[in-house]
Amino acid sequence: MAEIVTIGECLISLVASTRGPLAEAPSFIRTVAGAEANVAVGLARLGRKVAYVGRVGDDAFGLVVLRRLRGEGVDCDALAVTPGAPTGVMIRELRDVGPMEVIYHRAGSAASRMGPEVVDAAIRTFSDCRWLHVTGITPAISASAAAAVERAVELAREADAVVSLDLNIRRRLWSESAAVPVLRALADRCRVVLGGLDEVAVVAGLAGTLEEGADVDPEAAADGIRALGPGRVVVKLGAGGALERRAGPDGLPVSLRAPALPVPHVVDPVGAGDAFTAAWIDRALADAEPLEALRAGNAAGAAVVSTVGDLTGLPTRRELDALLAAGSRPDTIR
Ligand code: KDG
């Protein structure tokens, strides 16, 4: 039985094979992605039993997704094929600097058509799990997918599982003003919230846009989320490492901060946040010290930004341990 469950849209991600603007990309590498699937694979590589709930289309890309997730050891019993609906696709550029341009082909996708029934069909999976991880992406793809996430949270809470939410605001799917009330209501029912500083600040109500949010004090932003209910808030700060804000023994808020693992050359930053989340959840499930969890998350993120694609660099347990022991020195031969 899976100890961790996640629900979302697993997509085919076509990543430009050369750097530069999307309009100039001559060819693409076919990869598998989707924030929740990235977390599921990250956890499976660390040896965790993890189940993925969702829908793929009855097409070749759906087959690719199923083969990839199964091959990684993710329990796909609740990842069903929907006849007559396509598997979602995203196409993105590869860039060293600046925001990355993305084209989504996911309107009407199999996953966007899922509703609470997918969760009810997997009820045993939920009642046996210790942890449910959701993100802000799935509620953005359709009203029925948002209802599926709601139902998953409800069942996980009934089973007394920890619910974690990665805010993952995607402005190609919805605006900040549409996202904030939904994510605040979701955060209210989670024990853990993770996000980039810009996202945490926006959802906390300390900034109106993600750009403004990037300049907010991380502790103030995290406290804004803690005020909604979650006991642990993790702010991912990229090259600045990561910070956790939680209540100390006397009930007053305390901060723990771990520096990032230096990465000499960032090859592809997409998926680093999910890698962080997977390694962090793995350590949290093991009741590790909060600093150890942050360090593991940072190291997993560093491993992913050093390779192209969301899944490629996700470390195994042995790789993560080696990375933590050796740092990011590329001159170590094992
Ligand atoms: O966090 C990485 C994800 O953003 C990527 O895999 C695709 O889920 C995705 C999305 O909707 O952007």
Question: Average pLDDT across residues?
Answer: 95
In percent terms, what proportion of residues is strand?
15-25%
Q: Cα distance, first to last residue?
A: 34 Å
Task: Report low-confidence residues grouped into runs of 5 or more.
Answer: none
Fraction of residues in helix: 25-40%
Major β-sheet profile: 9 strands, mixed
Number of helical segments?
Answer: 13
- Taken from the alpha-carbon principal axes, the silhouette is globular
Topology, number of strands = 13
Rg, please?
18 Å
| Helix-and-strand structural type | alpha/beta
Enumerate the distinct ligands: 2-keto-3-deoxygluconate
The ordered string of helix (H) and strand (E) elements is EEEHEHEEEHHEHHEHEHHHEEEHHH
The main sheet orders its strands as 5-4-1-8-9-10-11-12-13
Question: Can you describe what's shown?
Answer:
The chain is globular, with a radius of gyration of 18 Å. The protein is an alpha/beta fold. The protein has helices at residues 35-45, 60-71, 116-120, 123-127, 138-141, 143-158, 176-187, 197-204, 210-213, 218-226, 272-285, 290-305, 317-326, and strands spanning 4-7, 11-19, 28-33, 50-57, 79-82, 89-94, 102-105, 131-135, 162-166, 192-196, 232-236, 242-247, 253-258. The strands form two sheets. Strands 5-4-1-8-9-10-11-12-13 form a nine-stranded mixed β-sheet, sandwiched between helices. Bound molecules: 2-keto-3-deoxygluconate. 2-keto-3-deoxygluconate (KDG) is lined by residues 33-35, 38, 90, 137, 170, 270-271, 273-274, 310.
